[in-house]
């Protein structure tokens, strides 16, 4: 019971909060495909869907270590 009422919601909030934190540290010129105001609206109003979109489409591409 504790798992459903405490752990799952806390995990969901953490999964949503990390993209918001990462968004604040990312420069406007590195964001894809939306602008900074577009991403904040998407992240705040679509919650977990917006977080998934940030991970797969919005984060800047990191250079590969060589």
Which parts are unreliable, with pLDDT below 50 for 5 consecutive residues or more?
A: none
Shape: globular
**Rg measurement, Å:** 14 Å
The secondary-structure class comes to: mainly alpha
Helix content: 55-70%
Q: List how many beta strands DSSP finds.
A: 0
Arithmetic mean pLDDT: 87
Number of helices: 3
Q: CA-to-CA gap between the ends?
A: 47 Å
User: Mind describing the biggest β-sheet?
Assistant: none
Give the strand content: under 5%
The tally of structural domains comes to: 1
Q: What's the order of the H and E elements? A: HHH
Describe the structure.
The protein is an all-alpha fold and 66 residues long. The chain has one domain (8-58). The protein is 70% helix and 0% strand. Helix 1 (2-25) packs across helix 3 (48-58) and helix 2 runs antiparallel to helix 3 (48-58). It is globular, with a radius of gyration of 14 Å.
Secondary structure layout plus pairing:
Blueprint lengths: L1 H24 L10 H11 L1 H11 L8
Helix pairs in contact: 1-2, 1-3, 2-3
Give a quick precis of the structure.
The protein is built from three helices and no strands.
Descriptive terms for the model:
single chain; 66 residues; mainly alpha; 3 helices
